[in-house]
Request: fold
Amino acid sequence: MAGVIVLLAACGGGGGSGGGAGFLPIVAPAQPQPEPAPPVVVTHTVGGTVTGLTGSLVLQNNAGDDLKLTADGKFTFTTALVEGAAYEVSVRTQPLWQFCTVSKGSGKAAADVGDVAVACSAVQAQVSTFAGSGTTGSVDGNGTAASFYLPYSVVVGKSGGLLVSDVGTNLVRKISPAGDVSIFAGGGAGGGSGDGNGTAASFAGLAGLVLDATGNAYATEFNGNRIRKITPAADVTTFAGNGNSSSLDGHGTSATFNAPASVATDAAGNLYVTELFGAVIRKITPAGDVTTLAGSGALGFADGTGSAASFNMAYGIAVDAGGTVYVADGGNNRIRKITPGGVVTTLAGSGQAGAADGAGNSASFHQPSGLTVDSDGIIYVADTGNSLLRKITPAGVVSTIAGQPGVLGAQNGIGTAATFKQPYGVTVDAAGNLYVADTFNNLIRKVTPVRRP
Reply:
């Protein structure tokens, strides 16, 4: 019986009469009710298309939803939005040497969004003078109050400071991020390959420089045929080579080099050295074991593996994040590429002296010397014979970013309004700024990416 059941209870004497009666209500258990159905939540994705991208780009949708892109094409953010929620797509990190804009990037998600458009284009190169008066010398000071004598190689450290090999004086110069120039190592009495601290050390034909991950610098001695090590405290020692001019493999000072011109390092701490006269590319392990990575030992041009390849006056060298080695093969007017296994190919350059932009062998160089590679795999080349600064994509597409072909000068400005005088060295910092050893101007130039008007 549903509802309330009434129970008669009697108390007291007989005969059915008594002292009173009461009613006790008893409630039946409630019947379970069905659970209400959960509301249906409708979500939508947000995405679109990116065009013109040659580096790496980070987009953001609202706060905290980041998406890294490295190529043209469709994209979709990972986090879906509740129907009706607002979205706003913006560029969080621009690619190096590009500027990207977003259109149709905001609204409310009434359905899946797929029409966000991101367009990327190249920026311009703003060239300025970072340090050096232009006169020959070795005066310390800030910015243009300092002087250099044929700066050849320039490298940037994690703090943003620079090291420069000043080959006319055999000095390693240090430049702070604020532009304060001082002598870091070199200048010791007697010259030659003298070990010691700071100015007590000396170099014989100072040339290339590189910094490893721990802040140690390594320098090549073009005349001394040695690889020198310089600690952050400026203690200079001989790391490899005994001074003899040949290309003998071995450990430390049992190995020999023949006019080592430039040096680079990979993520594992291995060094790679170009030999200008030896016509080979050498590899040195962190333990000091020297081997030959590629090159026949005779001046020439040939792609191939190991000793089947040939180089002609190889100057600059750089290594990307994956361990691929790039060489500015100056005498062949080409940029060469070497795999970790020693396979040599030509990335760009026809072999003819020229200043043509284009892809692969449709481009031309004139005695390319220094080169560097950024975190996106873009290669920057000091095209010495043309007095130009060039850029090469990982696919081998070459473009000119600053300078006028064959026009010598020290003019600051944007793109072709700027001029150089046979620059030999170039390096890139984490923000994409370039620093150029403008050798025959005795200047250190800074090249900053700026948006096109």
